[in-house]
Amino acid sequence: MPKTSVSSLLTWLDQSPTPFHVVLTAATSLDSAGFTRVTELGNELPNLGYLAHDGCIIAWRLGSAKGSLRIIGAHTDSPNLRVLPQPDIHQLGWSQLAIEIYGGVLLNSWLDRDLGIAGRVVDSSGVSHLYSAPQALARVPQLAIHLDREIGDKGLHLDRHQHMTPVWGSTKQSFSQWIRKVTEVADVAAFDAHLFDITPATLLGVDNSLLASGRLDNQASCWSAIEALRIASDSDHTAILVLNDHEEVGSNSATGAAGPMLSSVVSRVSMQHGLHEGQQFDRLATSWCLSADNAHAIHPNYPERHEPRHAPLINEGPAVKVNGNQRYATSARGLAHIRSIAESNDIPLQTFASRNNVPCGSTIGPITATQLGIEAIDIGMPQLSMHSAREMCGAHDPLHLVSLMGAFLQR
Ligand code: CO
After folding, report:
1. Taking Cα atoms as reference points, which of 21, 36, 398, 29 lies closest to residue 229?
2. pLDDT > 80? residue 1
3. DSSP secondary structure letters along 224-272
4. 80-197 architecture in CATH?
5. 141, CA 20 to 30 Å: which among 59, 89, 220, 397?
6. What is the whole-number distance in angstroms between the Cα of residue 222 and the centre of ligand 1?
7. Ligand 1 mean position to 295 CA, how many Å?
8. End-to-end Cα distance, the chain
9. How far, in Å, CA of 299 to CA of 313, rounded?
10. How far does the centroid of ligand 1 lie from the alpha carbon of residue 116, in Å?
11. Dist. CA 377 → ligand 1 center (Å)
12. Across the chain, what does the average pLDDT equal?
């Protein structure tokens, strides 16, 4: 077991309501482990360093010119509700906020929750300021059962536009006034404002063996990767960690996995190691990327949704994800590599494959493999309720994931 504890994950989750805050939390953790922030790639890279931009952070621990690359990737974003630029709605005695649904939200899970607001404002000079207001500010109220008699037979039907609009007061409110007050920035030119459930992350269960929180997909992987990089020892291999934004909406952005940030850092590292173009190609051919994004644990109430021989159990370790149609990048060679790492370090490891009639999502694994021409392995910590406002995983699995990632960086 690594010298880390799951309580640090709980703190991380509470401090990170948006991708911008994930980057800040990760950077703070790296700072305390002796990593240096760089703002440009033009200068000599420090041995332990990181580059952060908006919702993406890339950190590295440089190895030698003869070593190859061990990359770990995860994503900083989670499905949520986001306040639109002109949000004020005043009707029927209510103040409401116009919102946009980001990613594949489980809509029902956002009903009747006390919601805070966090994000960043950009001032008139273009400078970003992060803010977080973890108070009960807004709520998406569910319709009473007496006014929805069909709900029992037909189920809950939510119109994505009409029914997800939160209330945030019974007096006339101005969002721009509120955000100026809460951020103490006088010249707010624009903002990002994400709603989030203010209930703190917690251990759960009579045996405290479970963990409930928002944004476990995929901040549990982000936290594990940062912990693994912090405690890694020096190696000939260069360890690179990339936490990308916008995975939940397809990864096509400057800070997403299809953007250039990772490949820029990889080229810069090779340049510093004095490798010419052919040698850079050879290095990539012997390098590995571990793409971490949570997996679906088998659900006791819906076991039929799983391929029975490839259904991960809770608290039995991370699962390698396999999909021949390349929704996941893992090949037989990748599976053999990660299995051998897990076995030689006594780390439990499972395998996930989806049923042919329940297609799986994708991850940044295949995208990174395509961008860099590097072999990627998809793994994920098992969880339930993926994309709910309040997800759940095993309390022991994050530590198994840190162990696996740490061993991956050394091999
Ligand atoms: Co995910």
Report:
1. 29
2. no
3. HHHHHHHHPPP-SSEEEEEEES-GGGTS-STTSTTSSHHHHHHHHHHHH
4. Roll (2.30)
5. 220
6. 11
7. 8
8. 17
9. 9
10. 22
11. 15
12. 96
9 phi and psi angles, rounded to 5 deg: -70, -40
Class in CATH terms, 6-78+214-410: alpha beta
Calpha distance 45→31 (Å, rounded): 15
User: In this structure, how many other beta carbons lie within 10 angstroms of the beta carbon of residue 199?
Assistant: 16
Q: Which among 120, 124, 199 has a CA at the least distance from the CA of 392?
A: 199
CA of 293 to the centre of ligand 1 (A): 5
Q: What is the pLDDT of residue 249?
A: 96
Ligand 1 mean position to 389 CA, how many Å? 13
Task: Note the pLDDT tens digit of each residue in 286-331.
Answer: 999 999 999 999 999 999 999 999 999 999 999 999 998 899 999 9
State the distance from the centre of ligand 1 to the C-alpha of 363, rounded, in angstroms. Answer: 7
Contact 111, 10 (CB under 8 A): no
Instruction: Write down the pTM of the prediction.
Output: 0.97
Ligand 1 geometric centre to CA of 339 (Å): 22
Domain boundaries, the chain: 6-78+214-410, 80-197
Query: For 72-127, what is each residue's pLDDT tens digit?
Result: 999 999 999 999 999 999 999 999 999 999 999 999 999 999 999 999 999 999 99
